[in-house]
Amino acid sequence: MTIQYPTIAECVGRTPLVRLQRLPGNTTNTVLVKLEGNNPAGSVKDRPALSMITRAELRGDIQAGDTLIEATSGNTGIALAMAAAIRGYRMILIMPDNSTAERKAAMTAYGAELILVSKEEGMEGARDLALSMQAAGKGKVLDQFANGDNPEAHYQGTGPEIWEQTGGTITHFVSSMGTTGTIMGVSRYLKEQNPSVQIVGLQPMEGASIPGIRRWPEEYLPKIYQAQRVDQIVDMSQGEAEETMRRLAREEGIFCGVSSGGAVAAALNLSRELEHAVIVAIICDRGDRYLSTGVFG
């Protein structure tokens, strides 16, 4: 008998969907979280990272020996570093220098080269530098913010998985918004199955700093974002996101990052207003890449 062993790339996706047991309290609702930290490189970004590289290869946009460039705040960079290692590309990642030490170390462990911009320049500055490097012929930008292969990964994978795992009973989907790839792809799929499914996006309140999600200035709004695909946008405070993140670890055994805490906080707030709902929130990464910040106390 010949055993077909999977490659690491084939282990991306098909993540667990689990029920919260304590945080929702006494309710008729079912609050579920999708554990995207179970992906090989530890986040939901494994899906679009692999999608952007493999689909670019199929189109002939990139080929062996090319240098790839991407602006990232962390999770996409780690995922792209992994995907580039799998497929054999040189990977240059540009990120704000206030990203966590764990994220930087993970990227270099996969062999990526890092270029840091200041906290003040932020992701906008990182995106501008990536495009200027591409214009100078130093590599090819995948551009997760404008690349349709980003939401396509979630339309083909995350959305169908959630629909199947809930048996088509999902009523509300909650996701933090960074590049917006997750919410765009999942919304498109779920609305095709049932237009009444409510799509809830999360952004930080003015002044809040939640890793991985942004309130984008109009001129930097991701090109893949389509406002009509989101039914409600929730402004999340940093304090509530962090406190829910800590409670998830201590009361549910789910160790995740701050944006995941925010998504679950929004799901729990929704649950207090609803009855007999099936609410799914995305746990986009694991908490171990935030330990050096002291956010877990």
What is the compact description of this entry?
With 297 residues, the chain is of the alpha/beta class. It has eight helices and ten strands. It folds into two domains: 8-43 and 158-283, 3-Layer(aba) Sandwich (Rossmann fold), CATH 3.40.50.1100; 45-141, Rossmann fold.
Give a written overview of the molecule:
The structure is a single chain. The protein is of the alpha/beta class. The protein folds into two domains: 8-43 and 158-283, Rossmann fold (3-Layer(aba) Sandwich); 45-141, 3-Layer(aba) Sandwich (Rossmann fold), CATH 3.40.50. Helix content is 37%, strand content 17%. The protein is built from eight helices and ten strands. The chain has helices spanning 46-59, 75-87, 101-109, 122-135, 149-165, 181-193, 238-252, 258-271, and strands spanning 17-19, 30-35, 67-71, 90-96, 113-117, 140-141, 172-176, 198-204, 232-236, 278-283. It has a six-stranded mixed β-sheet. The longest helix has 17 residues, at 149-165. The radius of gyration is 18 Å and the shape is globular. 48% of the residues are buried.
